[in-house]
Amino acid sequence: MLAVGGGYMEVIAMLLQASANPNAGISGVTPLMVAAASGQVEVARMLINCGAAATGACAARGRTALHRAAERSHADVARLLIQAGASVDIGDFEETTALMLAAAEGHPDVLKVLLCAGASVSLANSAGESALSFCVRNKHEACLETMLRAGAPVNAANRTTGNTALAEAAKVGSEVLCRRLLQYQANVNSSNARGETPLMLAATGGHDQVARMLLVAGANTAAEDVNGHTAIMHAAGSSVAVVSALLDFGSNPSVVSEVDCNTAATLAALNGRKEVYDLLVRAGAFVPVVEDTGDRVT
């Protein structure tokens, strides 16, 4: 294993000629996995030629040599492993594939190798994350472009959170990613498990430029989440710029939640956002009267 990690070809050749087992490992980690993780393509080739299995998984996390090559951006090693029979869609113990790891770490060259070998763009791991969602959450623009061109389902939702790629892009405030996803017909009014739309997520994060982009694309300002909160109510606690954008696009500042009786104005006040509160009042927002008991009167 030490010889493999150091890339000592002559030592490795001598050991293999002396009948060293190329599949013998430590705690499930084989020499081929070490070569893959360190990008030692010629070492990997030698091991494979001497019988190393490209399909074996590490006992600790269920990851193969291909997983390791993909995560570390070793495209040449990944290509060699695939040629040697490595399965491109096998998942680890969390159902994470090599494609997902390459997307998460931002390695477009590895993505292309895997996609050319037939890797599925539609799989998700046990947490509901897909390769596309990893690209977006980590703001890997080149990887996103590669996945979109490969036909990744742009409106697929995380089975745990319900977020689509556009929702994740809005949440992290990336104008570039949102624009590209919208160009690929992402649903601007999708809602997640909490009823939150991309516009609400952008509003919560104070991402005014993303919010304006979504509004231009037709985002519904009247949509409500599970708490009866609209986008302007989400923005009230975070950003005067987003509130201003929502008002420009006709958002109703006087909606009263049927769940918790809050309004945009009360949420602004609760969060200490005086400038937002003042803007809402100037826009004619309904401000509930508060009795001495502290109960809201709507």
UniProtKB/TrEMBL annotation:
InterPro entries hit by this protein: Ankyrin-SOCS_Box (IPR050663), Ankyrin_rpt (IPR002110), Ankyrin_rpt-contain_sf (IPR036770)
Record GO terms (molecular function): transcription cis-regulatory region binding
BP GO annotations: positive regulation of transcription by RNA polymerase II
Keyword terms of this UniProt record: ANK repeat, Repeat
Gene3D superfamilies: Ankyrin repeat-containing domain
Any one cellular-component term (Gene Ontology): nucleus
Pfam families membership: Ank_2
ANK repeat feature ranges: 27-52, 61-93, 94-126, 127-159, 161-193, 194-226
Protein name in the entry: Uncharacterized protein
Organism: Effrenium voratum
